[in-house]
């Protein structure tokens, strides 16, 4: 059980009281770049409902400015998604720069770091839920409703309703990032690694070995990367296991070397049911182009529910059918009839919510008390103790896994981080959970550095001239160029290039035959004619890409994963041009006419 914290934090500003705007009352988890706390907002001695505060954690192995830019990208994306009204995600309430958390009444010290304030969502993640329910406890989570909630969130990310809005890739869809609320609703959380789907914005890639797609190793990620994560969530809900191997293993004698990414594992439940296996593995294909599109996931989920209902799969506390007795909240729900024993798991979550309501009422009485700010602060402290005294949702459930980020090079090594001690400013913090499944940031052309686990209080780094106490920053330097990701756009242009190359080779052979047959003319004139044909082909390719951008991206609001149609048009043009060259050779015309006459 996490113990009481007594830390405050707030934005850097001329008003000293703003440094104690938020009181951190309990440590929740360790993320890839931050420590996560339960907190309350203080204003004139009055406390708010619980909130979640993410405190940036500096990694000394990476440049500070680079880490801040990475954090800012994820924060900007989440704030934008809140403005768009994207359903099924955790809402961002505030964000600011401030000094590290410190005990109340003390002068804050240290360099200002970024904070993020989110809605506090009671509940447990899907990984914890499936593990606990797989142990035999009763359950009633609507599996189809949970997956449909994820589909609606991903559709809003990948295909925004506003034509001017940029698509977003979450980057880290996995069971531990799907939160199940007491009502049965699902929420997609942890947008720290989220990025706009633009090459200049995706300079780092979040990768979880057991749930991430192999394209992370090439740097070419897009909406299909989230589809793979969605497939990993569905796979976990059906089997209770992650779809990809936890360790690379060793190839057997005479076997080909294993790829650097985690390979798909075999599951006995799926081996005996090929129809369910083939359907469940479709979003997990190694090739992103072989996966269903985001817009196809609703129908895919309905088909999955039908296959699971007719199959013999383990009971993980999920129901896959359409139950008329379900109490639907959004599209996820829980059965209305009681299915857990009195005092069971869901009742504990509901009791936590009731304590929050009672806490707000108690803190609200502070406005009528005497004693000024000291009495109000005592009430806030009592509220913090009440928040921190709640029991764990599942007494023997594993803690939320920490996300670990490293910076591998092109070969992408996966070192195992040794356990290290954890400290914080006031009071003990529970030991860090195991790194399963771990998340890492893949940065091209960077050697791997050992990741140091963070602390509850933000580390105090030496003051740098690029930040002052107000949290203001000078104009940003341009982001470091992403080598494989000039990447994203250039590789898109290359897809389908074989069509153009084939057409060019055919045209060149035909031109060569014509040039030899027409050797009486100047060779330079013949060469200029062929170069003119190639220039027209390049112009045709550019025109096709422009039309595709206006129609597919501008009018249909869809991204283009390849340039096959443009290359096909160029290939056809070059083949026609080659035939035109060949038709000018007399002996080819004679051979063609002879074949036609004898065939007919």
UniProtKB/TrEMBL annotation:
TM spans (from-to): 497-517, 523-544, 565-583
Signal peptide: none
UniProt keywords, alphabetically: ATP-binding, Kinase, Membrane, Nucleotide-binding, Serine/threonine-protein kinase, Transferase, Transmembrane, Transmembrane helix
UniProt name for this protein: non-specific serine/threonine protein kinase
Any one GO molecular function term: ATP binding
Region (Disordered): 394-489
EC class name: transferase
Superkingdom field: Bacteria
Residue ranges that the Swiss-Prot or TrEMBL entry lists as coiled coil: none
Location of the Protein kinase domain: 22-319
Source organism: Actinocatenispora rupis
The enzyme's E.C. designation: 2.7.11.1
């Amino acid at each position: 059980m996490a113990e009481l914290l007594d830390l405050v934090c707030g934005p850097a500003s001329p008003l000293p009281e703003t440094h104690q705007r938020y009181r951190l009352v309990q440590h929740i988890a360790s993320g890839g770049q931050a420590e996560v706390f339960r907190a309350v907002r203080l204003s004139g001695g009055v406390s708010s409902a619980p909130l979640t505060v993410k405190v940036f954690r500096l990694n000394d192995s990476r440049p500070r400015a680079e880490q801040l830019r990475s954090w800012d990208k994820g924060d900007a994306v989440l704030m934008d998604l809140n403005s768009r009204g994207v359903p099924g995600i955790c809402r961002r309430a505030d964000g600011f720069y401030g000094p590290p958390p410190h005990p109340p009444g003390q002068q804050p010290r240290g360099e200002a770091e970024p904070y993020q304030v989110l809605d506090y969502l009671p509940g447990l993640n899907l990984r914890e839920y499936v593990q606990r329910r797989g142990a035999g406890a009763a359950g009633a989570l609507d599996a189809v409703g949970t997956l449909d909630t994820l589909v609606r969130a991903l559709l809003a990310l990948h295909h925004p309703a506003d034509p001017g809005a940029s698509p977003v890739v979450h980057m880290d869809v996995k069971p531990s990032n799907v939160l199940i609320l007491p009502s049965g609703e699902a929420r997609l959380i942890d947008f720290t690694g989220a990025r706009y789907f633009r090459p200049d914005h995706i300079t780092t890639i979040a990768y979880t070995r057991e749930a991430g797609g192999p394209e992370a190793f090439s740097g070419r990620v897009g909406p299909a990367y989230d589809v793979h994560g969605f497939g990993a969530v569905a796979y976990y809900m059906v089997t209770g296991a992650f779809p990809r191997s936890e360790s690379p293993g060793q190839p057997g004698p005479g076997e080909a070397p294993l790829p650097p990414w985690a390979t798909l594992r075999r599951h006995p439940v799926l081996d005996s049911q090929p129809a369910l296996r083939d359907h469940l593995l479709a979003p997990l294909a190694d090739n992103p182009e072989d996966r269903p599109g985001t817009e196809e996931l609703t129908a895919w989920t309905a088909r999955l529910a039908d296959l699971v209902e007719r199959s013999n799969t383990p009971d993980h506390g999920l129901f896959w059918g359409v139950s008329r007795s379900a109490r639907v909240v959004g599209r996820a729900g829980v059965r209305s009839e009681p299915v857990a024993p009195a005092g069971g798991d869901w009742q504990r979550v509901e009791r936590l919510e009731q304590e929050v309501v009672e806490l707000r009422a108690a803190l609200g009485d502070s406005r009528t008390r005497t004693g000024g700010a000291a009495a109000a602060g005592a009430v806030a402290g009592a509220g913090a103790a009440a928040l921190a005294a709640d029991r764990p949702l599942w007494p023997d459930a594993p803690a939320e896994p920490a996300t670990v980020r490293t910076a591998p090079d092109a070969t992408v090594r996966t070192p195992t981080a040794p356990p290290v001690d954890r400290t914080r400013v006031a009071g003990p913090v529970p030991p860090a959970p195991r790194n399963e499944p771990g998340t890492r940031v893949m940065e091209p052309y960077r050697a791997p550095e050992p990741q140091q686990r963070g602390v509850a209080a933000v580390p105090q780094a030496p003051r740098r001239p690029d930040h002052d106490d107000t949290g203001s920053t000078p104009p940003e330097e341009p982001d470091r160029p992403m080598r494989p990701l000039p990447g994203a756009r250039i590789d898109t242009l290359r897809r389908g290039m074989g069509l153009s190359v084939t057409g060019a080779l055919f045209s060149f052979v035909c031109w060569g035959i014509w040039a030899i047959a027409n050797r009486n003319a100047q060779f330079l004139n013949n060469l200029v004619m062929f170069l003119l044909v190639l220039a027209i082909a390049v112009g045709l390719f550019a025109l096709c890409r422009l039309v595709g951008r206006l129609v597919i991206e501008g009018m249909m609001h869809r991204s283009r994963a390849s340039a096959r149609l443009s290359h096909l048009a160029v290939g056809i043009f070059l083949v026609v041009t080659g035939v035109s060259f060949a038709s000018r050779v007399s002996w080819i015309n004679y051979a063609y006419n002879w074949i036609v006459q004898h065939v007919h």
